[in-house]
Each structure stands twice: as structure tokens, then as C-alpha cells.
Amino acid sequence: MIRSWFITVIFLIICMTLFSDSALAINTASSVSNSVSVIMSQEEVTHTILPSVYMIIPFILLLLLIAIGPLFFHHFWETHYPKIAVFLGGISVIYYLGVLGDSHSVLHSLAEYLSFIALLGSLFVASGGIFIKVDKKATPVVNVLFLLFGAVIANVIGTTGASMLLIRPFIKLNRNRIKAYHVIFFIFLVSNIGGALTPIGDPPLFLGFLKGIPFFWVIENVWFIWIPTTVILLSVFYMFDYLNKDGTDENEIYTGSYEFKGLKNIAYLVVIIISVFIDPAVISWVPSLYPLPFGIREIIMFVVMILAYRGTEQEILKANEFDFAPIKEVAYLFVGIFMTMIPALQLIAHESGVLKDHLNAGIFYWATGGLSGFLDNAPTYLNFFSAAMGKYGLQINDKVQVMEFVVQDDIYLRAISVAAVFFGAMTYIGNGPNFMVKSICERAGIKMPGFFTYMLRWSIPILIPIFFLVWVIFFS
Fold first, then answer.
1. 145 lies in a domain?
2. What pLDDT, on the 0 to 100 scale, is given for residue 26?
């Protein structure tokens, strides 16, 4: 056990500092999929020169500014964060185009970003046209049932869809006593851990499905981890909510009724979820628009975004306090994140390949999880999935070999799958909907903790002991 911990720590240090030979060439698949359950339309292998280790500085600097900007220079950050994000992302773009002569990596990351923002934007607008009001007293039990429902439905419409659909009703339900911990547990359960049971639930799992993992493999191999993890988190939330009942207006009369408006937007949500599968890698007759950095799926999503906004009644938008500020903030910050993380992901892919023979299930679990909290969990999942298959001399781009790997020894895949989804809750940037939920809540007047406070006060003390227990029971 000590040796496993030592290797895990060393591996994470290597990955995060990326202490490697920058001149070493590697082969990588160009069809690494993105954070919104999308893969590039054309599989091809390209010879890529590893970037300089110093090129991770813009990525680290951007994360640092996201963390401290709102705390120490709030007005400056709110005014200039779009320029900062674009500038730092531009450094990586110029380096790849001008120094490495590698336009492929930049175009691939651009395609990932466009797919990412198409999905988040369309779900944000479509869900913004749905008004849900639950006129019940927000007791701890009611809140637990609400979060449980959100965790379950996340496997049907994805963590992003569930988050965008339910965060506003959750705020309204707790309108007289809403506190930061309500939102934080919502992020834990609905925006991340809840979606661990199906390929639709979270982007990494959908990537596995596209690579050849059977659709029902996830629920068959993760349910016995998902259930106790969800129950423990709901129990912890119940204790928090029970001990913080102050603020409820005892004189307010509740009818117990439910109000729902915006039925046609449910149809838009269905179209968005279906469009995720409209990809040449899933349906052979779907045409590829390569070399364009987007496909038919993204076109559908952007069209739905326009139609949903124009077709929504103004009274619903007003009732939801809808505006485009949250999606604007995500769009600017994540264009910087997607571009600056290109070198980090390439160097991590190299290191995971070099060290694959020293990695066991526990190390895969902690390494995948540790990096998924700060990097896009979808490509992180693919990197370690590929490294795990490499232990057996198998290739991730061969669906027959993927099935052989699943049948042969699925503990590695289980560890990677669980970690990629669960650990996305560790930071605001660990998964797409996290930052979106935070932004929506702040604009609703809820004071949310900063980047470091979220980790030090909430995710580390609450989630890490639970994730440690998962490791001890299932992967040690």
C-alpha cells in the first residue's frame, strides 16, 4: 500500500510539473474527444513534438487568476477577465503555430471548445425558458429528495442538462434560507457524481461508449459504488441542512403545489440530447464537415439555442431572472482554459504512457481523479484509458481490442471511470456545469466561496474522505 501511494504521488508530481524531455516525439490520436461528449469526425494519427514544460505556465497562471481575481481585485477582474483569458490562450496558440508549426492541436482544441460551448449554451438557453416552482417548505428531507432526483435525472439528460434545469427551482425552493452549502452540495451531486451511471451522464463516459465500451457496462460496474457514495453525501447534506434550519419563515403559508411553464423547451432539451449522438463516429451515415472545426451536431445545438431564446415567453425569462452573463463568463474563461491546457494534456499523455507498467488500479484512480479536478476530465479519462490498455498491449482506437480489455480486466476502467466523474466536483473548473451553477447563483445574490475556499473548506474535507473510502473498499 505504501509503495502504491508513493508511485501515485510521484506520478501526480510528474504530471503536474510535467518534468519531461520536451524534444521527445510521441504518437497521439487526433480524435481525442472533448468535454461535451464529442469526438473529432476523422480518426488519424499525427506525429506530435512534445511542447516545452514552460508552456504550462499560462495554464497555471489562468487558474491562479480565476482563483484570486474575484477576491483581491474584483472590479479589475470583472472588467478585464475576457481579455486576460484570450491573451493567455493566445500565447499557447502562437507557440503551437509559430514555434512547433502544429496547427492540428490548435484546431482540435478549437473543435473541442466549440462543441463544449454549443452544448452548454444550448442547454443554458433551453432550460432558461422552463419555469418550475415548488411551493413547499424547504425542509431537509425535501431538499434531500430534490438532490436525489437531480442526481438520478443527470444520467438521463446529462449533468449539464440536469444542472441547468434544476438549479433555479432549487434556489426558489430555498428562497428564504438559501446558503452556499446548498449550492455546493448541488454541484457535488447533480453537476458531477450523479451522472456516473450512464454514458449520457458525463462526457468521459460517453467517450468510452464511442470507443467501444457497451452502453450498460457503466451502470453494471458502477452502481454499487454510486449508491453508497450518493447516500453518504446526501446524509452529510442532511446534517448540514438540519443544523442550519434558521431562516425559514414559519409564518409563510405553503400550498404544496407545483407550477411548470415552458413545455416546448422540454422538446428542445430532447433535441439537444439526441443531437449529441449525431456524429460520424456513432452513426456512419452522418456526414463529416471536416476540416471545419464543428459538425452537424454543433449546428443543431446553436440553432436550438436561437429558437429556444426567441420562442420563450418574456414572463418566463423574467421569472427566471434570465440573462446571458453566466454563459458569457464561461465562454471567455473556457476559451482560455481549452487553449492553455493543450501542452499540459500532451505532456500528461506522454507520462502516462511511459509509466503505464507501474500503474495499478489505485494509482489510476487517484491520478485520473487528481488531474480531472483541474483539467478537462474527458481527455484525462482518455489518456489513462489508453495507458491502461497499453499495459496489455492493446490499442484504444480498435473497438475489438477495447472489448477484449473490458472482458479481460475491467478494474482499471472502473477506477478511471469513477474517478473522472467523481473528482470533477473538486473544483469549480472540474466539470463544465460547476462554473455555470456558481455564476447563476452569484447573480441571484448568493455569496459563493472563492476558488480556494471551495476546495479548502468544502470539497477537500467532505469529498476526499469519501473518495478515500471508495479507494479502500474498491481499488486499493
1. yes
2. 30
